[in-house]
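Worked example 3. Consider a protein that binds zinc ion.
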Amino acid sequence: MAGLDDLYREIILDHYRTPRNRGELESPPAFESRGHNPLCGDEITLYLMLDGEGEDAVVSDIKIGGQGCSISQSSASMMTQAVMGKPVPEVRGLIRKFKTLLGIEGIEEREGDAEIPLGDLEALQGVVKFPVRIKCAVLSWNTLAQALDQAAAAPS
Ligand code: ZN
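Given these inputs, the predicted complex is written out as structure tokens:
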């Protein structure tokens, strides 16, 4: 993508060419959710495995299936790395923080969000310059939020 910083473009292409945590998990016990971005044709199927209950649960495994453009796929790959092993409240914080990075309005930051590291995800901040690609970058994150909502609503 022209216009993105070279280093950032390298990170995005690396995750696109060698996506982390591709595959599927048996569902149940994993929570499965699907996301679709009709503007670009991106499709994400996300499998989320939690260990523990409610707010004490941690992400014990996450896998991504589907297909789409380099931004949607690399964002999903980076997301899986960022949330693996993390407690659910921190994952929700990371979702808020990432959406704020992309310039999405109406996200209410909470105490502690500032300390959550973004790591490679900062590579995607250049996407802000391409408004149509923001939906690509955020697709997997909305799909993850859906899976977390499913988990929160599931009978224990
Ligand atoms: Zn896309």
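Take a moment to read the result before moving on. The beta strands are 31-37, 42-51, 58-67. The pocket of zinc ion is lined by residues 37, 40, 42, 68-69, 71-72, 136 (CB under 6 Å).
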